Amino acid sequence: MKTIRWGIIGCGNVTEVKSGPAFSKVPNSRLVAVMRRDAAKCEEYARRHHVPKWYTDADALINDPEVDAVYIATPPGSHAEYTLKVAAAGKPVYVEKPMATTYAECQQMITACEQAQVPLFVAYYRRSQPFYRKIKELIDSRILGDIRFVTISLYQPPQANLQKENLPWRLQPGLAGGGLFFDLASHQLDLMDYFFGPIASAQGQIANQAGLYEVEDIVTANFRFDSGVLGSGVWCFTSAENARTDCTEIVGSVGRIRYATFGDDTIVLETQAGRQEFKIPYPQHVQQPFIEQMVGALTSQEKISGNGAAAARTAKVMDTIVGRSCDR
After folding, report:
1. Are residues 165 and 201 in the same domain?
2. Domains held by the chain: number
3. Which CATH number belongs to the domain containing residue 75 in this structure?
4. Among 14, 218, 206, which Cα is nearest to 98's?
5. For residue 226, what are the domain limits?
6. Is residue 187 located within the same domain as residue 66?
7. Could you tell me whether strands 93-95 and 69-72 are parallel, antiparallel, or unpaired per DSSP bridges?
8. Based on CB atoms within 10 Å of each CB, which residue in 31, 136, 166, 284 is the most buried?
9. With a threshold of 0.85, does the pTM exceed it?
10. Which residues of 154-193 are buried (b: 16+ CB within 10 A; e: fewer)?
């Protein structure tokens, strides 16, 4: 069976443990090239991870004949640009989440990959992890009965020592598309799409209450799924430390499920039969199960749910929640 030879554009922190090493641990897959503008950091990354080639020019990596598929691990502000270039080179694209800074950019990426007849994958890797597959299994088993509603609560205190002249990229709208809502809620809203299907309508409110940076620091939302399930969420990134919360609750006619998206590895199920806990540790390389699925799709046409169309739906929901036109 063919080995998929991967190149990475943007070998920063997300690739150190979460994704990078997994490309060479998955069967029929190998990481052969990396790119970063800083030559010293790129060379050092390649040496540490035993990657044979490194580049400071993205075009050189994209057009390397020994690179079969490209993983774009840069901030969202450059996702569309690089996706269009990789598609034009006729190579499959794997892009970090959120898919782009706007829904309109997502549509451009989908069109480019369709025209080039190459797959477009997006790193909503939680869909493939055993933890979330177990939640999906419980929902589909109807152990909760008819699903009534879901609530998402994510409260975090602000990062210490923030300086407006030197903010992390996740708080720079030109790079991130917005604030931490776009970075973190994107995972949670994609999981809603995975569990319950597409969100049919959404509305929200945003504010910048603390004034620590330009982008929103609180978002509230209500949404409805095609299935009739209702949902709501509150994302606050300037809460007190003792108010820190990460809880998604799924409520049905005969039970409920609670879990954390970014921390604890325990699913709590409560039904008339009592309380059960499922402790399902996350893999060392959290993207590895999804990378396995992508390699399967590329080598034997296996089906995969984390594709561009699904990711674009999440982008559209986020744009709608923050009151942004989906045409821009």
Report:
1. yes
2. 2
3. 3.40.50.720
4. 14
5. 130-282
6. no
7. parallel
8. 31
9. yes
10. bbbebeeeeeeeebeebbbeebbbbbbbbbbbbbbbbbbb
